[in-house]
Specification:
Elements lengths: L4 E6 L5 H11 L5 E4 H7 L8 E3 L5 E3 L1 H19 L4 E5 L5 H11 L4 E7 L38 E3 L14
Parallel strand pairs: 1-5, 1-6, 2-5, 6-7
Antiparallel strand pairs: 3-4
Helix pairs in contact: 3-4
């Protein structure tokens, strides 16, 4: 694999963190894993123009959030430019615009975009102990997948509903 940056996008609790851990275990080179949850957890508890969660799960972000998000994204890309390999577990709140933000920031860094689709009935129970999604993060009603012009290959991870899924253990 020649990509230095893998962006995994999917709804909350769709299995992105588990996929990151599995990729770290099977890829021949070491890869760093970062989650949008790491970024959100690093934000101040109170911030004008930050992030707000509505009563029905909607998420609103303001200019202060966008400024810090751009800096975080640039930092991730800088690690790749310095020789690191990074997998980012993200939730594209802005749809195709969120992917474009990563594409613009990555520039010539070869990037693989992965869309994770999960049955909405499976997602709320997908977090195992130790998973990174905070309890306050709203459950997504749907997920989306987008394409990138610099995608080296494309695959989609899908989870099965509980009735068709084999018994599984959380990643270690």
């Amino acid at each position: 694999m020649t990509a230095r940056l893998i962006i995994i996008n999917g709804g909350s609790s769709s299995g992105k963190t588990g996929i990151v851990r599995c990729l770290q275990a099977v890829l021949p080179e070491p890869w760093l894993g970062f989650s949008v949850d790491d970024f959100v957890d690093a934000l101040p508890a109170v911030m004008d123009g930050g992030i707000e969660f509505g009563p029905d799960g909607e998420v609103s972000v303001g200019p202060a959030f966008r400024e810090l998000d751009a800096a975080w994204t640039a930092g991730i890309v800088a690690m790749c430019r310095a020789g690191g390999r990074v997998i980012v577990d993200d939730v594209f709140l802005g749809g195709a615009g969120s992917q474009q933000r990563w594409r613009d920031a990555a520039g010539d860094v070869e990037t693989l975009f992965v869309g994770v689709h999960c049955d909405p009935e499976v997602a709320p129970g997908a977090n195992w102990p130790g998973a990174t999604a905070p309890a306050a993060w709203p459950r997504s009603r749907h997920t989306s997948s987008t394409r990138a012009s610099r995608t080296t290959s494309r695959w989609t991870a899908r989870t099965r509903s509980p009735s068709t899924a084999p018994a599984r253990s959380p990643p270690t």
